[in-house]
Fold this protein.
Amino acid sequence: FRSIDMESVVIPPFSIPAHFKYLGGLDVGFKNTAGLIGRYDEENDIVYLVQDMLFQEKPLVEWAPVIAHNHKHPWIIDSAANQASQATGESIREQLTNYGLDTHNPGLNKSVDAGLYIVLDRFISGKLKIFSTCAYIIAELKRYARDSKGKIIKAHDHHMDAMRYLVTTLEEARTDQPQSAKHNHFSSRHW
């Protein structure tokens, strides 16, 4: 990802046409949960990442209702979220659904590398753009790397994972406009 021309990828926010589809990517972690909101211009096949969010050391009960209330579009999550908790017997996906999130995880049977190649291809071809107000994903993108054995360095990569989920499942994007989008100021959010 170091070969990406950040000047062509990171763009100033603009007023998004209503027909651009909505989709969210969510990487749920024990300590940190990262979210990205994307808008998909299907006609030109361009994905715009318009808002990122980070929930640090917050239990699901604190942030899930906020997202569910403010963002009524589909959220793509890792298929690992389907695994039941040993404590409650309920999966993270079930918990998110109970809070009102429209969660999906289709197409995530692709390997991490396959998903990253899809993301990289979109960046190189100009089909994936990031609003300059999305500080978390921009910071992660700049430091995302592999170790000497070619393995992804699994540190500070939650937004990168959320981006991969979102970009590889565009078929789940919807056009219905969430209420919150009418008043969105497109910025990074930290709770």
In short: Confidence is low (pLDDT under 50) at residues 178-186. The longest helix spans residues 112-125.
